[in-house]
User: Fold this.
Amino acid sequence: MKCRKCGAEIPENKIYCETCGTPIQMVPDYNPVEDIRIGDERPPVPSSDEEAGEVASIPFYRRKRYIGLGILAVLCGVLIYHGGYRMIMGPSREAEAEAILLLEKPELSLPSGTYSYMPSLTISHPQREEGLIFYTTDGSTPNEYSQVFNGPIVIGEGKTVVRAIFIRSDGMQSEEADGTYQVVFEFPDEPEFSVDSGEYSAPFHVTISAEPDCTIHYTMDGSDPDHLSSVYKGPVYIPSGFTVLRAVSMNEEGDMSGIMEAIYNVEENTVPADAAAEGMPGTAAENP
Assistant:
């Protein structure tokens, strides 16, 4: 082997040149950039016989391995770039597309909540003149086949879920608006009678009681009492014969309770005067 610097012959058992002291290069120079050529597996043309021998000493499988590693590095870079781009730009582009596709949602005139009366609900949209509002009241998803809003919706007793969308004449649809309404009537309790239904031997009086701030209306012919029926102001006289007493309580808002009923069958007997004065069941009492 000859020295690269001075050209002197170096014995095989020496690792440096005895003439100039230059150490022997144990591994030949190798530039992977020159070897990695996609589609060209030919080795570089050596400039001299010695370099040709050095290139030939590198196994072919090692040169091909560098080519494979280069291709793999390029593919990984492409995948990483696209993955990062989708993570950064993807959500914003999807949100932008959704904002473009959906119009502003309709507006409900009432907030969700519990009501003690049957409220009227209206639905509006800024572009109302350019399309139609469709709605449902059973919680189902509204579409172009749902009920068209043309006037106030009366929310009845119980739970009602209103969902609405606006569809423009060109087919563009809005976001969905929804509201949940619970209507609970606060009815007063039924009135109470001081005497239960039954058969009695003499006329008597019945007192009727109800909750504070409630008015009592009653009938004695078996008909349903309402706000036009007699107003209770004192004990009700139950005469001889068959009487059906019915009464309701009505609060200040006009809500009425259920009907309380009692049926009395009083015998037509003569009762001592001292018993009649007591005015209790089983005794005679004069009608005041």
In short: The chain has three domains: 31-103, 107-183, 192-276.
